[in-house]
Amino acid sequence: MKSVVMRAVGALLVCAAIGARAEAATYRFATNVSEDSTAGQLIGEFAAAVVKRTDGRVQFKMFHNGVLGEQAQYLQQIQSGVVDLGLVNSGTLETVVPAVGVMNLPYVFRSSEEYAKVMTDADVKEKLDTAALSSRIVPLGFLSSGFRSIYTTKPVSDFEGLKGLKLRAISSPTYTEMVRLFGAVPTPLPFGELYPGLQQGIVDGAEGGLAGLYVAKFGEVAKYALVTNHTRLTDYVVTSTRFKQRVGDKDFALVSEEFQKISLKSIDFADKTEAEQLAKAVAELGVKVTNTDLKPFMTAVEPMYAAARGDAAKKPVIEAIFALTGR
Questions:
Q1: Distances (CA, A) of 117 to 66, 91, 225, 249, 309
Q2: H-only helix segments in the chain
Q3: Angle of helix 38-53 relative to helix 249-285, nearest 10 degrees?
């Protein structure tokens, strides 16, 4: 009798193990960055932690380097549930979720401390999550980049020096308007064409992270960096409502917890990396860095705050941020 019982128990354990394995699933994760980039490394760390936390129930198949298309393309696939997760910057995301445009407003973050305070605030997150849900998007968390400034092929030392210059900017309504208010001419140009664009004079410069002067070698042709720290572009990892349903509440909570750890880590990591790479651009590529008075830049973009407050989708977010940062 005892052996019969033991065999029955053993059979049940085998069935349970098979059932547990059956629940495991692999989800498609799209990025437009390389596996060894800063974002790629942080995502890899997150993916490994999720496998461990969920005992292998949640695993990811990574598609790096834009294999599944540009961000705008795979964002549509995320909305339809074809792709489960993706790395999408706030400039791209605002074209689908207008409320995210507030996060791209120039000088909405005046320091790394303000950025961290806002990005980890539960009320701000809830407002953005609610706005995204209407587009069938569930933001998982963020990866910080450093502050963005301006680099040019011609010497520029202040706000007035930007007038009439053709500057490449992210293709988003917020970034295009910002460059216009700076007195420059927003010039659309794919990121992959920026180096030859600078080299051939198609553009006189670009707004972007100054780390790119070294990492992407833009400093070989753009020898002047104007420190404006106008925005802090954020990469979001977004999922679909379908992904959340498939994973289930328990495992989705674990996935969210692990990404929150990566989000916090990315803030200091981005600042440190930005400073180190700019220093290399100066030392190795001869880039000249100029610090300038930021007041004219801040004054020029004030109409963008008024416009955001007049937009029903953006008003709750900008007011929450300004209340949080004492503005």
A1: 31, 20, 28, 27, 21
A2: 2-23, 38-53, 71-80, 90-93, 112-119, 122-133, 173-181, 194-200, 212-215, 241-247, 249-285, 295-300, 302-309, 315-324
A3: 160
Query: Two tokens at 27?
Result: 């989800």
pLDDT in single tens digits along all 327 residues of the chain: 444 444 444 444 444 443 433 368 999 999 988 887 778 889 999 999 999 999 999 999 999 989 999 899 999 999 999 999 999 999 899 999 999 999 999 999 999 999 999 999 999 999 999 999 999 999 999 999 889 999 999 999 999 999 999 999 988 889 999 999 999 999 989 888 999 999 999 999 999 999 999 988 999 999 999 999 999 989 999 999 999 999 999 999 999 999 999 998 998 888 888 899 999 999 999 999 999 999 999 999 999 999 999 999 999 999 999 999 999
* pTM (two decimals): 0.83
Helix, strand, coil share of the chain (percent; to 5): 55, 20, 30
Contact 164, 203 (CB under 8 A): no
Structure tokens at 187: 């010039």
Longest alpha-carbon distance in the chain: 92
Q: Give the position of tokens 């004219």.
A: 296
Residue 252: closest CA among 20, 108, 50: 50
Whether 186 contacts 176, CB under 8 Å: yes
- Cα 309 → chain centroid: 23
The SS3 assignment for 239 reads: strand
- The CA-CA-CA angle for residues 220, 67, 145, to 5°, reads 50
Q: Return d(Cα 39, Cα 126) in angstroms, integer.
A: 24
CA distance 200 to 63: 33
For 265, residues 6+ apart whose C-beta sits below 8 A from its C-beta are 42
